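User: Could you go from structure to sequence for me? I need the amino acid at each position, not a summary. Structure tokens:
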């Protein structure tokens, strides 16, 4: 059980205490989101299919993601007014991706081994080419390579009459090979199916609501399990208590972490300017504690303090969500408790979402749900 794993004091308080701090920050995001929407023709179109493969390592979130969009027509301010976008995210850096091929079928599921496909996109030596099923060269796709995000956007111009069949296609099936090997583990069993008719926005909204509901429920379960495990002393009393312990032993990483998280909680009850000062100061103690606790008994409590603060403070001010996610992933690797592991991955997902790491967020969510299967 979770209670046997840790004796968390300020981490839990910090998680729920600092969350109200700078609440206007999220309100502003929600307000802007209602009025600002980038037209799909600029971003690649509406979503048709999104596929992720996650590695099984405990302390890393290795991933591959393949996203299929619906065709775009009458696009403005882009090279091709009609195009079809596919996006590939891969595990390492650009140098590791020497070549890849995507085999696509527009009508029926067919066997890749028999090479029954309508079109193939082949990428090597920094260039891409599109071929039909007779292996005739059709055209070159537009490639947008984002090195920092390990991402290649493939935009297929819909000028060829054969390629224009995608405009009336209900479903597409995709086979991916990277450096000659299938990217997805189920590749040999069946291809990836993308629905070109289902309303992508509604599908996205439903999926997002389900994910947020799962994360909320996981947090609530953790809150119930932790109830009564932390003291009810005031923040000032906690600060005085842990400060004395630190003076007695400057390398007492448990006290350092609890002192730091209480500083952050104090910031949550302060003015904006003072809050920024206190939270920044809290990381001096939290970071020192994490460095001292690495690989030692007590690391779970220390990291939970820092991760909880990182998850609670506003991303636009402190930019700590990604480091918080990494702490939660590390925490998941340090425990065999299924409920706590699921909670850590769910929190990692929450943090990755805040800093825009959508693929890592999805992978973390997958891992969280898989733990409880």
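Assistant: Here is the amino acid at each position, in order:
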């Amino acid at each position: 059980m979770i209670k046997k794993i840790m004796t968390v004091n300020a981490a839990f308080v910090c998680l729920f205490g600092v969350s109200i701090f700078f609440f206007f920050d999220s309100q502003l995001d929600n307000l802007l989101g209602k009025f600002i929407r980038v037209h799909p023709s600029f971003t690649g179109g509406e979503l048709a299919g999104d596929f992720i493969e996650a590695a099984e390592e405990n302390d890393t979130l290795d991933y591959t993601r393949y996203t299929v969009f619906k065709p775009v027509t009458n696009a403005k301010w882009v090279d091709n007014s009609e195009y079809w976008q596919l996006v590939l995210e891969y595990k390492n850096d650009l140098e590791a991706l020497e070549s890849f091929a995507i085999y696509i079928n527009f009508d029926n599921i067919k066997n890749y081994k028999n090479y029954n496909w309508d079109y193939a996109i082949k990428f090597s030596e920094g260039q891409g080419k599109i071929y039909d099923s007779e292996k005739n060269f059709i055209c070159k796709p537009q490639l947008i390579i984002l090195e920092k995000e390990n991402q290649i956007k493939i935009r297929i111009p819909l000028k060829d009459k054969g390629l224009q069949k995608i405009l009336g296609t209900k479903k597409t099936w995709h086979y991916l090979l990277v450096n000659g090997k299938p990217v997805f583990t189920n590749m040999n069993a069946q291809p990836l199916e993308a629905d070109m008719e289902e309303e992508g926005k509604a599908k996205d909204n439903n999926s997002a609501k389900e994910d947020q509901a799962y994360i909320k429920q996981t947090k609530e379960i953790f809150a119930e399990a932790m109830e009564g495990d932390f003291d009810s002393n005031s923040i000032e009393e906690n600060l005085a208590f842990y400060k004395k312990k630190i003076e007695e032993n400057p390398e007492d990483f448990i006290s350092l972490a609890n002192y730091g998280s209480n500083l952050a909680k104090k910031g949550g009850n302060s003015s904006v300017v003072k809050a920024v000062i206190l939270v920044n100061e809290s990381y001096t103690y939290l970071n020192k504690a994490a460095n001292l606790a690495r690989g030692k008994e007590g690391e779970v409590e220390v990291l939970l303090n820092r991760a909880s603060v990182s998850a609670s403070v506003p991303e636009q001010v402190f930019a700590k969500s990604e480091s918080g996610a990494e702490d939660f992933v590390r925490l998941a690797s340090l425990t065999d408790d299924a409920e706590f592991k699921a909670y850590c991955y769910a929190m990692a997902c929450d943090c990755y979402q805040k800093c825009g790491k959508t693929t890592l967020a999805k992978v973390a969510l997958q891992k969280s749900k898989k733990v409880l299967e």
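One structural detail worth keeping in mind: Residues 307 and 324 are 4 Å apart (CA to CA).
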